[in-house]
Amino acid sequence: MAPVDADACMGYTPKMSDAPLRYAVLLSKPEEFRPVEIARALAGVKKVPEQDLVPAARRCWGIVEDDLPEAGARELVAALEKAGLGAVAVPRGLIEEPAPVSKVHLLAPFKPERLAVLAAAGYKEITTRTIKTTEGPDLTQKAIGMGITMMTGLPTSLGKAKKEVQTTVETAELVFFLDLVLKDPAERLRIDAQDFDFSCLGAKKSYSAIVNFRQLLYDLADASRRAIRNRGTTILLEQKPVREMGYESLKDLERECRWLLTLAALAR
After folding, report:
1. Phi, psi at residue 155, to the nearest 5°?
2. pLDDT at residue 141 in the model
3. Secondary structure (3-state) at 127
4. pTM listed for this prediction
5. b/e per residue, 162-175, with b = 16+ CB within 10 A?
């Protein structure tokens, strides 16, 4: 990806009738998404402890801030560069928006040169469900009920009644998604590894969804070498642990795609 000219992006002069421009500050290189360094730069600008900003830095996905005045944007760019990270400030209106998502269960052939971004993400999806069960009395309640009956000679409901109990159960499942951002015309195809027909792999198809997902990623990356690869794609292709990705939901993938598409547009 060609370097982004920060001065050119900041050099737009609004017309007298325009409202003051608001700016977004982006990392200028995909490989420089390093949350600790980002948090350090933000801490210097915001005058708060660095550790307090690490969670926000992890969730920024390359768009460090997206609503700053020009002076604030310049200050943050300088702080990021001081922390060893390339950065650029751009008017908010220049942030690219990917095409709406089209979920696909089968992958139809397309020209490899149409693939602009290959964006994979894996994360643990938490599912909460409520289980209703009917429980009878415990041993203590049964013993008390029996004792009352023996002393009085009268039957009692104590120790016999049943009650409905609701229990909340959380389950965590590792899920994988892949967004194929296409151009000419603009499209975005989303593959859910948990609900996808991997027959397009032919003889390379296996019985494991994650193995098939990784193989599909290999094939697409090999066929479209000029496509931008997001963090998740790089980690999977290099067979690094999934926990290093850092995604928590599809919102993270959306934000990262906006960042990468914007960098590509600025480079053009």
Report:
1. -70, 150
2. 64
3. strand
4. 0.79
5. eeeeeeeeeeeeeb
- Strand, coil or helix: 172: strand
DSSP codes of every residue in 216-239: HHHHHHHH-TTSEE-HHHHHHHTT
Are the CB atoms for 206 and 144 separated by under 8 Å? no
Nearest to 12 by CA among 24, 1, 21, 3: 21
- 217 backbone φψ class: left, alpha, beta (φ>0; ψ -120 to 50): alpha
Q: Which of 268, 223, 1 is nearest to 115 (CA)?
A: 223
Residue with tokens 């920024």: 60
Quick check: 201 and 219 in contact, CB under 8 A? yes
H helices present in 111-194, as ranges:
139-152
Output Rg (C-alpha) for the chain, integer angstroms.
Answer: 27
How many CA within 13 A on the CB side of residue 116?
22
Q: What is the pLDDT of residues 104-119, one digit of tens each?
A: 999 999 999 999 999 9
Distance CA 198, CA 186 (A): 24
Alpha helices in the chain (DSSP H): 6-10, 35-46, 50-60, 70-82, 139-152, 209-223, 231-237, 250-267
Residue pair 210/176 in contact by the 8 Å Cβ criterion: yes
pLDDT tens digits along 235-268 = 999 999 999 999 999 999 999 999 999 999 998 8
Angle subtended at Cα 227 by Cα 222 and Cα 233, rounded to the nearest 5 degrees: 70
CA distances from 255 to 6, 68, 77, 142, 233 (A): 21, 17, 19, 59, 15
